[in-house]
Specification:
Strand content: 15-25%
Largest sheet: 9 strands, mixed
Radius of gyration: 22 Å
Distance between the termini: 29 Å
Helix content: 25-40%
Structural class: alpha/beta
Shape: globular
Bound molecules: zinc ion
Number of helices: 15
Amino acid sequence: MFDLIIRGTTIYDGTGAPARTGDVAVNGDRIAAVGELACAGARETISAAGKALCPGFIDVHSHSDAYLLIEPSAPSKISQGVTTEIVGNCGASAAPRTPLTRLPSDWADKPYPAAWESVADYRALLEQVRPAVNVVMLAGHNRLRSDIMGYAARPATAAEVAEMCRLLEQAFDEGVHGLSSGLLYTPGCFSESGEVEALARVTARRGGIYTTHMRSEGARLLESLDETLALGRSTGVRLEVSHLKTSGRAHWGKLDAALERLRAARAEGLVVAADRYPYTAASTDLDVLLPEWASGDGRDAVLARLADPVQRARIREDILSGRAGDYWGMVQIASTHHPDNLRFQGRMLTEVAASLGLEPVDAALHLMATDTLHTSAFFFGMSEANLTRILAEPYVMIGSDASLRAPDGVLSRDHPHPRAYGTFPRFLRAAFDGRTVPVAGAIRKMTALPASHFGLKDRGRIAPGFFADLVVFDPAGVRDLATYEHPHRFAAGIEQVIVNGTLTYHDGSFTDTRAGRVL
Ligand SMILES: [Zn+2]
């Protein structure tokens, strides 16, 4: 007698092997048997004829850290079939924190159950709220840096680097699986490669992974890839290039050279992979437009520069230089903060500018100043053809680059990128429709491949002894419904989601049982 049997379904085991028809039995939190189980009994049965079954998806590039404490049922993730999230990416983990660190703008001012500082504190809080998904933590370089030296716009001293390394060691002791960086963002952009190299060396010694949002994904994409790969060579750390892309039309032609570098590095023995979300718009804070000289020393300093007419004029000029006139037509305002700006959520920046009677660049500066740097935006700067080629690379896996959201409550009020709700079903749909790699290979990119690259033991495959993280879906109906205009929409066709043997999502509703673990 098994606890659960899923009967008569098409099984994709996660390895990329062709699907076969059969039954899968679960006992406790593990898969107990796979095959022809017609004579076996079970306390609970899911009849899944005509449906498909695969391992739960692993979102290798998540930003849910702090939001898991507010909405542990992780609705936007579970409803996509995500059963494990790797959090703390792009240098911006929720922990560790010291009083010198501010939470990123989208995490600030939210109703958390308690305050936290160390990774151990955050982990204890997370275990207390019982997340629906499994959580894998990374420590962010920007966090370690701001914990030690605030938002200072300068390279770190040797003593400061040593302090960051000590904090990272402690984070490993308390359960992180690796280090992330966000070298495009403040304050990581002020670091020199030696600083990150020291942290990567600690990471390699602790058997961790290093994920990186590189310094540039456009103008200096190839130099940034070289910096990343050099770090892998000098330290031996396992590498993950976050959201691999060629950003900006002028840089689309660099894809061949970028992929060649990655293939050559892998051929020489570097352990390097990458992730990507299946959309052509990026989403980030609008203030990434600011020149580097204007973005340091913390929010108050940046706002003071924007308030000073002379400095604002210089900022304006720097933003305009190197951007073609049609650039602004590719920017869509996402979340805003000031009550007067809420009407601009989801509108193109050019429309916002027209309604304010301003040039687009001035409208952008107006939003940054009035929203106190809490505006986010979608940037439509990527090529669909390059996206297809990137997703086809055998080492590229799927990451949403999103934090979890919910259609109601505190996490329903902003205007996220549709990838927050749609990433995994969207990629599955593309596979079934023949617009990307074949289905079994597409599922591998969301399951067994990330489990092996990130070192998640006994996850990401359907085989006896593996954890019962499972998704039943309708091959004909699975698709994303979230759009840039209406992002808070669950995907269709995800029928059952099981986390550690526990049915968590069933025919479009949540069972209110949360069985995720902090791994
Ligand atoms: Zn990033």
